[in-house]
Design goal:
InterPro entries: Cbl-bd_prot (IPR002157), Cobalamin_Transport (IPR051588), Transcobalamin-like_C (IPR027954). Keywords: Cobalt, Cobalt transport, Ion transport, Secreted, Signal, Transport. It comes from Campylorhamphus procurvoides. The chain has two domains: 55 residues, no CATH class; 105 residues, Ferric Hydroxamate Uptake Protein, Chain A, domain 1, CATH 2.170.130.30. By secondary structure, the protein is α+β, with helices and mostly antiparallel strands. It has five helices and eight strands, in the order αααββααββββββ. A hairpin with a 6-residue loop joins β1 and β2. 23% of the residues lie in helices and 26% in strands. α1 packs antiparallel against α2 and α1 runs parallel beside α3. The radius of gyration is 20 Å and the shape is globular.
Length: 198
């Protein structure tokens, strides 16, 4: 993409590793490593899987280099990052418009609600608050993945690999680049969950 993004924020790490390891094979147009580096250094990576994929590219290495590294136990080249900072207690709240839509299978539905959550909350908190307000309508289920929680069912309608269906989350008509456990909605933002096919 024109802004230095390769795929989405989660595919950036592997793409940068691949392009960095194969520089002698692509021409005549050179890949703009600095632009891609600017994208990843401005993003707040929190998921261990995403960090593991982008970190090698940040130190100009790839997973292919791992076998040749000489790790000396007496040196401290990689200091610990320490514990994850806790979300500070916030007295500021935001209001998020959340809607769920199924026009794909069975009985079609569309429901919307407004929820108020603390500033800095993840999208998962919005879903939990909506379910708390109206469990008959906004119930949902997640499953844990290496990329964080993934929503597999909303309003009793579950995703199905055989049918190639899933719940897609959008903001301003664009799919979110992050999952429900990472994405931080903004005040007044409209988040749509749409039952979709891939």
């Amino acid at each position: 993409k024109g802004n230095g993004m390769i795929g989405n924020i989660y595919s950036m790490g592997l793409a940068m590793q691949a392009l960095g390891a194969t520089t002698k094979f692509y021409s005549p147009r050179d890949w703009d490593c600095a632009q891609a580096m600017d994208v990843v250094t401005k993003h707040d990576y929190e998921l261990a899987m995403a960090i593991a994929q982008v970190l090698p590219a940040l130190v100009d290495r790839s997973y292919l280099d791992a076998a040749s590294l000489d790790c000396d136990a007496t040196t401290d080249e990689c200091p610990s990052l320490g514990p994850d900072p806790e979300l500070p207690e916030s007295t500021t709240n935001i209001t998020v418009h959340y809607s769920i839509t199924n026009e794909l299978q069975g009985e079609h539905f569309h429901y919307s609600t407004w929820v108020t959550v603390p500033l800095g909350s993840r999208l998962l908190k919005v879903l939990e608050k909506a379910e708390e307000q109206d469990p008959e309508i906004f119930s949902f289920e997640t499953k844990q993945t290496s990329w964080g929680p993934m929503v597999v069912s909303i309003h009793g309608l579950g995703a199905n690999d055989n049918d190639r269906t899933y719940w897609q989350f959008l903001s301003s008509g664009k799919p979110l680049d992050e999952g429900v456990g990472s994405y931080k909605p903004k005040d007044g933002e409209h988040i749509k969950a749409i039952f979709s096919t891939w």
